[in-house]
Each structure stands twice: as structure tokens, then as C-alpha cells.
Amino acid sequence: MELGDAATLLLAACLMIFWEWKRRQRTSKLPPGPTLLEPSGYLLQARNKGMLEILRKVKEKYSPVFPVNLGMWQLMFLCDSDSVREALVDQAEEFSGRVRAELVDTLFQGHGVAMANGERWKQLRRFCTSTLRNFGMGKKSIEEQIQEESQYLVEEMGKTKGSPFDPTLAITHSIANVICSIVFGNRFDYKDQNFLNLMGSINNAFLDTSKISTLFYETFPRIMKYIPGPHNRVYSHYRALHDFILERVRINQQSLDPSCPRDFIDSFLIRTEEEKQNPQSEMNTRNLVETTIQLVFAGTETTSSTLRFGFLLLVKYPEVQGKVDMK
């Protein structure tokens, strides 16, 4: 372990002791869960096994529903389908709010459909749902775009001529292109440098936010922002995404035809103009840029990860792969 990592863990452990002492001074009606020091015993293993393994151990010791105190934050983990269903379906209204994440909030400051709350979230969600549906989401037309992009993906994989290769980039690029065709109105060639820069920023941002130092940042932001590490590199990745999207917005503004929206950005710009006299409107450039970043980032990473796991399962179970090939 590097010296910087060791110092970070030592500092975090000391602060955990303080917060645990403060927590024990308060009474709580929450279900039983680990003390602050207990999860810290697993942190040295987190670099190799990840946070999922830590949470599995906590679940085995307590129950599928348990609280974890992280500094000023108290997180409730739901680890089975019954608990998730009760929270998100049976008591959906009570669980509809969104917690403030320090690192993400520093970047987006509550803007964009994925990070907003209250009336801002309602307006942006309503617009995004209807607009994305207009551009094919959930309809037959999007299937045609996916099929077209899948052909480019097959061609890209065919260039390996049967030799072993890592499909991560090819899959990520194909998923991103489907999203780009809706958001920007066009797909990109897999070798396009602007596209590669966009994908690189998304990938690097995801990797850096997955590091253990980001967990410490969420717990002790005022201290961690002065400590170098991956958590402090995220802003540069976000800045690259922001500048790319902002430039696309400017390009669309110069050739905008209100009677014929070409993509998501056009539709947002048209609605912004329509509501410019409404002081309560959340349709503005800031929300446009942040929402677009979130759509591209979240849609690309989640879907490509799902597909990679699907390919991995097919490799592990060749008999299932054979049945797919037959169809």
C-alpha cells in the first residue's frame, strides 16, 4: 500500500472513532447495524475485493436491512428484493427524495434531471420522458437504430479475425452511439477523435469515482478535498464532458429550426425559448448541459456494463451460447 493511502486510512479511522462516539450519544430506532469501526476493518481488503464484499459480510452478520454510519451520513442498505419492493413500491412517496452526494453535488450543484430534487426534478423529468419518447425510446424506431449500430459493432469485432480481444471499448462505443444519435442527432465513427475523447472522459470519471478515496470524500469532504487522489481528478473529467456538451449546444443554436427539432438538444432549446418569460421555468442552459451529461454518462456506462456481463455469462456457459447461435 502506498504511503498516501496508508495516511488516508489512518486519518479516516481516527475520524470514525470520533463520529462513533458521537453516534452512541444518540438513541435510534433503526435496525441493528455495524459500528463505524467494524466496516473499517475491511477497508484494507477493499482495494482487491471492492465495497460489495464488505457489504456482503455486514449483511451476513446482521440482516438484509442495516444502517451504516459514514461520518455525518447515515446510509440504509436494502439487500433483498422484499425490502427494495417495500421501500420503492409500497412506500414510493416516502422514498422519492434523493440524498445529497458530496462529490456529485460539487460538480452538478443540484442541476440536471439525475441530480435535481423537487420542482426542478419534476419539470426536467417530465420533459425528458416525453422528448426521449418522441425520439424513439421504447418504440420500434429505436430498435432500428440499435440494429444499425449493432452492425457496426459486429464489423468492429470482425476486424480481430478470431483472435482474443477485449470487447469493452467496442461495446461502450456502440452503446454511446445509440444515445448520441438521440441527444446529438448523429452517431460517431469509432475512430473519431472527439468521440474517443468523450468516451475517455466518461470512462476515467467512472473509474475515479469508484475508488475507495471517493468513499472517504463522501464521508469527510472538508478534509479530503485537500488530500490528493482520484477523487480530486473527477472535476477535470467533468470539465471535459461539460465543454464538449456546451460546444454541441452552441452548434445547435446556430442552426436551430424551431419547426423541426433534430435531437434532444434542439428540443430543449425550443422549450427554453417558449418558457423564457416564465420565472419558475427550469428550462435553461445550465440544466440542458447537465442533463445531457447525465444522459450520456449514465446511459453509456449502465447499458455497456450489462452487455459485458451478458457476454461473460455466454462465455462461461457455452451451451447457452450455442442455443443463442441457433436462433
TrEMBL record:
SUPFAM superfamilies cross-referenced by the UniProt entry? Cytochrome P450 (SSF48264)
Highest taxon of the source?
Eukaryota
Q: InterPro entries, alphabetically? A: Cyt_P450, Cyt_P450_E_grp-I, Cyt_P450_sf, Cytochrome_P450_fam2
GO BP terms: epoxygenase P450 pathway; xenobiotic metabolic process
MF GO annotations = arachidonate epoxygenase activity; heme binding; iron ion binding; oxidoreductase activity, acting on paired donors, with incorporation or reduction of molecular oxygen, reduced flavin or flavoprotein as one donor, and incorporation of one atom of oxygen
Membrane topology per the entry is: Peripheral membrane protein
- Keywords, ordered alphabetically: Endoplasmic reticulum, Heme, Iron, Membrane, Metal-binding, Microsome, Monooxygenase, Oxidoreductase
User: Record's GO cellular component, any one?
Assistant: endoplasmic reticulum membrane
What cofactor does this protein call for? heme
Transmembrane spans: none
Report whether Metal-binding shows up as a keyword of the record: yes
Where can this protein be found? Answer: Endoplasmic reticulum membrane; Microsome membrane
Family to which this protein belongs = Belongs to the cytochrome P450 family.
The protein depicted here goes by the name LOW QUALITY PROTEIN: cytochrome P450 2G1-like
Q: Which gene encodes it?
A: LOC102378632
